[in-house]
Specification:
Length: about 140
């Protein structure tokens, strides 16, 4: 396995692991949050359960539900391709993707940290980042080499 490319990648992997572990151990619930409707609680619970089933956390969706605000932008395929053409270092590619997209849609994994940045609202079109490998994929194709 290739060596990790930067302290930032190590920090991202560690933060993702801690978030996934904390959710798995303690969970998080909106049950005690004032002003949250039963429908909102149910939707939150659905996304929380889906995350646990996929060994991770749907960070963007849960953050939007907690704040009550939708994140303003999703990265587009054209923006991803432009970043990959302009930036050679993995850490720089990820930093720019995060700057444009904001919170990853999903962070998780078991042994390999996986971050998903959805190009659409339901995750059918997405890029997947495998932190420890330094790979960015669309489907099964590595696109950052």
């Amino acid at each position: 396995m290739r060596r990790l490319r930067s302290k930032r990648v190590v920090a991202l992997a560690a933060a993702a692991f801690v978030a996934v572990a904390a959710l798995a151990i303690w969970g998080f619930s909106v049950k005690g949050v004032p002003g949250v409707s039963e429908d909102q609680r149910q939707e939150y619970s659905t996304w929380e359960t889906k995350g646990k089933e996929n060994i991770g956390v749907y960070e963007r969706k849960l953050a939007e539900m907690n704040s009550g605000k939708l994140e303003s932008k999703r990265i587009t395929w054209d923006e991803v391709m432009k970043i990959l053409a302009q930036k050679r270092e993995f850490k720089d590619q990820i930093a720019e993707i995060e700057r444009i997209h904001g919170t990853p849609d999903f962070v998780g994994g078991s042994g390999v940290t996986r971050m998903e940045f959805w190009l659409d609202d339901d995750g059918k079109d997405r890029i997947t980042v495998l932190l420890e490998q330094g790979d960015i994929l669309r489907g099964t194709e590595v696109i950052n080499r």
